[in-house]
Amino acid sequence: MVRITEDLVRKRAEHNELQISSLEEVSLHQQDIERLEHLDKWCRELKILYLQSNLIPKIENVSRLKKLEYLNLALNNVEKVENLEGCESLRKLDLTVNFVGELTSVESLCNNYHFRELYLTGNPCSDFEHYREYVIGTLPQLQWLDGIQIEKSERIQAVQNLPFIRGRILEQQAAHLKKRAREKAEAAAKQNGKAKETDGVEGDENEESNKENKPGFDGRWYTDINERDKKDVKKEEKSHEEKVDEFWNEKTAYTPESRLEVHNHLQELKTKEEKKDDVEQKAPRKLFADDGRPYNINEPKLDFSLTEDDQNVLLDLAIFKHLDTSSLECDVQPTYVRLKVRGKIFQLELPVEVNGDDSSAKRSQTTGHLLVSMPKVKVKQIIRPKTHNSNSKVNKASDQKGKNDSNFLEVDASARKAVDVTSIVADNEEKKMKAAAPFGSQMSRRDLPERENSADFVDDPDVPPLL
């Protein structure tokens, strides 16, 4: 049984900073609440109260809500309109799809002067003859009934015919109350019968008979004693499914008891499923072998192709065309690629080492396929010192040199691209000497023999020598 608790009300009061004393509106719909209580003490300022889609059988504990203007109790188990006289500000009451059969109970709303709208669609009383005329004639302040506005002429006619209509309403109401008493008795008998079936099992006899029927207790040998247990489990599951089908195919009247029975049945199924899920929890999948090698896994069972060229390794995965891309996760590692498709793992070991940081994933807008491009890791060429043959004479001569000799890297002459600058100065001097020599002569002035002085040569020390 779900009760209205303070924590539940505070959770629904988030818009009011979790304060319930000053709360003016609260929604407690679809909470499987089975009793209306405590709100008249905790939330005196309430103006709007939503309680639809619960299991409330009676309107109660709301008479202190003087400011309440709108009460929604649609889709509950209410059978009577009552205890609303103290709600002085009540303007609208919604009892759609309940079990109100006592139509005369609407007379309790006569003194609610602000009352304007009433919804009784889907209740047994709405099938009564002269139902609408009776409600209009009984509640003069009402303006809307079941979403239809009340006309003045309709009200005048209903007031005039009310004394005659009321007698017919009382007859139909009495017949409905007898029917409800019979339905309650049948539901109680059915409930007691189920309890007797549960408690009346002869435990000891059944245990002995089950023990005799089990393999290994009848004096025979069995190759697989668990085989029969498996058959028994399947038989039990089949009988359970048959019981479920029988429950839903059984024809029953639509009553508060049947609605409560359906709710309890659904709760039992939900509890069994939760227990089954707890028992059948799968162990976490192992993604790597003991030596660290990644396993190849294809949980989503998708078609794929893995190709490679000189630069990249390409994975083409046939993702479902209409699957949202937000449901995909991709992780590229040097030796494997892993994807999650709606939580299911796809993992593939790669033939070569790839660069995960530079990888990319693109999805086709037409086919939905996912293409993962993973560039290969390139091995860089390392320059190492040239090693000489230990038997060569050159190596022996070099070993005899001092320990301070340096080893130089030998580079192939064909690979030399720079200009040789070591002979630039010598070449320039040679060119100058050739330019100073007379035409046709290949010798410089410095190489010419010195000529003898003439007879009339006078050596004047004041004259500088010729260079």
UniProtKB/TrEMBL annotation:
Domain CS span(s) in chain numbering: 297-388
The keyword Coiled coil appears for this protein: yes
Similarity annotation: Belongs to the tilB family.
UniProt superkingdom: Eukaryota
PANTHER family in UniProt: CILIA- AND FLAGELLA-ASSOCIATED PROTEIN 410-RELATED, LEUCINE RICH REPEAT PROTEIN
Subcellular location: Cell projection, Cilium; Cytoplasm
Protein name, per record: Protein tilB homolog isoform X1
UniProt cross-references to InterPro entries, sorted A to Z: CS_DNAAF11_C (IPR056496), CS_dom (IPR007052), Leu-rich_rpt (IPR001611), LRR_dom_sf (IPR032675), U2A'_phosphoprotein32A_C (IPR003603)
Region (Disordered): 180-225, 385-409, 430-467
Biased composition (Basic and acidic residues): 208-217, 444-454
Composition bias, Acidic residues: 457-467
Swiss-Prot/TrEMBL keywords: Cell projection, Cilium, Coiled coil, Cytoplasm, Leucine-rich repeat, Repeat
Keyword rRNA processing (UniProt): no
Source organism per UniProt: Aplysia californica (California sea hare)
Primary gene name: LOC101851581
Principal cellular location given in the protein's record: other
